[in-house]
Amino acid sequence: MARTDTVTVGGSPMATYIASPAGDGPHPAIVVMCHIGGVDAFTKDRCDRLAAEGFVAFAPDIFHYHDWTEDRNERRATLRDPRMVADIEAALAHVEAVEKVDGNRLGILGHCLGGRTALLGAGAIPRFRALAKYYGGRTTASWGEGLASPFGLIANIKGPVIGFFGNLDEGPSPADVDMLEAELRRCGVPVEFHRYDVAGHAFQDHTEPARYHQGAAEDAWAKTLAFFRRTLGAD
């Protein structure tokens, strides 16, 4: 079952898509951080798929502070890291209030821009016990004052990390992925990265046929589900 609730954060109404599994719970929960397309068909599909596997999955619309613009660079420029952390915390508090969630079994996942913000959330909010990161770049720069970059917060991550990347991608490039993996290991964070020679950026997004790579997408998703079952359990 899925619906969209409105959560007020920073004085602004934020739409939050929530997909819930069958059964009484309490269930593990996963925040799904949206990509540059927002909480669109792809992001909702990921939430629905997770719910079908026994997780409460929810996606906060981090673009709620500004009117929607079709220019993705303008859209990205409206984002600020401290506000996105507040968005995650507000969405999580709402979901815990209205759903049967086990607050000790929380994960976070994101694709592209969402891969960056999922890393940010895992580093800024110690409650998360698992992070799945898909091809998110731009991790070394801080967006807004008052908070270190996602890369700079890696030492604060409290659970294992799994990552998926296309070796044909230029953002993050294979060298960027190497740097991220090295920092996770240096900080003692358990890490498992998977790289696909045949894939580029956004290879899991089935709504973009030019980028979608079925083999890599299906393999990565199977590994993602196994990772969350192992780290968070599922009902």
Task: Tell me roughly what share of residues is in helical segments.
Answer: 25-40%
Contiguous helical run count: 6
- Under CATH, the topology can be stated as Rossmann fold
Give the CATH H-level superfamily: Alpha/Beta hydrolase fold, catalytic domain
- CA radius of gyration is 16 Å
SSE arrangement:
Blueprint: E1 2-9, E2 12-19, E3 27-33, H1 41-52, E4 56-60, H2 72-77, H3 81-98, E5 101-111, H4 113-124, E6 130-134, E7 161-166, H5 174-186, E8 191-196, H6 214-232
Parallel strand pairs: 3-4, 3-5, 5-6, 6-7, 7-8
Antiparallel strand pairs: 1-2, 2-4
Description of the structure:
There is one protein chain. The protein starts with a strand and ends with a helix. The radius of gyration is 16 Å and the shape is globular. The protein has 235 residues and is α/β, with parallel strands linked by helices. An eight-stranded mixed β-sheet has the order 1-2-4-3-5-6-7-8, with helices on both faces. α3 packs across α4. The mean pLDDT is 97. It has one domain: Alpha/Beta hydrolase fold, catalytic domain (Rossmann fold), CATH 3.40.50. β5, α4 and β6 form a beta-alpha-beta unit. It has six helices and eight strands, in the order βββαβααβαββαβα.
